[in-house]
Amino acid sequence: MQVKTKTAADIMVPIKSYVTIDKDATIYEAIIALKGAMHSEGKAWHGHRSVLVLGDGGKLVGILTMSGLLRAAGLKEIDEDPEIKAESWGWYYINQLREETKMRVRDFMRPLDLYTVDASVTVMDIALALLKYQVNSLPVMKQGKPVGIVRALDVFMVIDEFFH
After folding, report:
1. Whole-angstrom distance between the N-terminal and C-terminal Cα of the chain?
2. Is 44 exposed, middle or buried, given 0-12, 13-18 or 19+ CB atoms closer than 10 A?
3. Bridge partners of residue 118, in order along the sequence
4. pTM, whole model, 2 decimals?
5. Nearest 5°: phi and psi at 150?
6. Span 135-163, pLDDT tens digits
7. What's the gap between Cα 94 and its chain centre?
8. How far apart are CA 38 and CA 73, in angstroms?
9. Which residues, 6+ apart, have CB-to-CB distance to 161 below 8 Å?
């Protein structure tokens, strides 16, 4: 099958192979879940770079990527910034951040319906969508239900066939 006729369904990673987490879980719990899904062979780490987020009734509602986790870590960094603590308002702000902002997965996830592709779209259309939305993965939908995730890596692994 040539890349011109391959579809999202042909190259996607099935939903079942991803780690899932509840939308109300903490960012720390998400980090632990994602780390648990990774494995190392020598110095390189392998595994998915995102977790699927489940809402009420176990329904898939979003995707939390490493980028989302890094954004959350950036907010945590504010808590440890000595320059902010040196300001008169700094201690108050940091305490409010600690007490009121319990960083949850739902606050940093990308909603499922924000960017998706249908299982029938071609690899080239997937590549264009990844570039358009500036993301590295997209949920794959079939008849309105999520069936997989297609990643930039999946597209890259077959894109050389386009040049034959």
Report:
1. 12
2. exposed
3. 141
4. 0.73
5. -110, 130
6. 999 999 999 889 999 999 999 999 887 77
7. 28
8. 19
9. 2, 3, 6
